[in-house]
Amino acid sequence: MPNYKKHLAGGCLVYGLIMYLNVKLNLVELDLNLQLQTLAACLIGALFPDIDTKSKIQKYIYFMILIMSIYFMAIGLEYQAGIITTMSLLPLIVSHRGLFHRLWFIVMCLCIGNYLCYLNQACWFANCLYLSIFFLVGVISHIWLDMGWKKLFKK
Fold first, then answer.
1. 32 FRET partner, CA 20 to 30 A, in 5, 41, 93, 128?
2. Domain interval for residue 88
3. What CA–CA distance (Å, rounded) separates 58 from 64?
4. Same domain, 85 and 112
5. Euclidean distance between CA atoms 36 and 30, whole angstroms
6. Position 51 confidence tier, pLDDT thresholds 50, 70, 90
């Protein structure tokens, strides 16, 4: 099982490949700010499936969730704070390499998140979509490093 350094290296590798294809095929022009955001999304995605494991990564992610929930409550978005807080309990009740190592689950969550982004902040939808794609690419690199190609699409 690769450690977090190998998962980050895998995330950097797939990010580089996607950016190379993006430039070569002239698909989307990303400014520097969006490039940094997509890099962060890819690296977070490369670490995310191990959120169900007691680790430093899990502690950092829960700390970020706490800060986000406090921020949302401070600006009057209690509903969003409640959703984030409730969803943060899920990793505590699933087994390692369970739900968070299932590509269908990650894709479903990203689709729901993008739909909510479209409903609530349509002007940010394109950015949400870009970040979701790079997050998903990072997740795929993680699952591939953990389980290989044959088990990548298992149910």
1. 5
2. 54-95
3. 10
4. no
5. 10
6. confident
Tokens of 27: 């698909």
- Given a contact cutoff of 8 angstroms between Cβ atoms, the answer to whether 22 and 28 are in contact is yes
134 contacts 45 by C-beta, under 8 angstroms: yes
Fill in the amino acid letter for 29.
E
Please give the structure tokens belonging to residue 56. Answer: 């430093």
pLDDT of residue 1: 55
Instruction: Indicate if 4 and 70 belong to the same structural domain.
Output: no
- Mean pLDDT taken over the chain: 83
Spatial separation of the C-alpha atoms in residues 127 and 82, rounded to whole Å: 23
**Helix (H) and strand (E) counts for the chain?**
7, 0
> In this structure, are 88 and 141 located in the same domain?
no
User: Which pTM does this prediction carry?
Assistant: 0.79
Q: Are residues 64 and 32 in the same domain?
A: no
Residues in the chain: 155
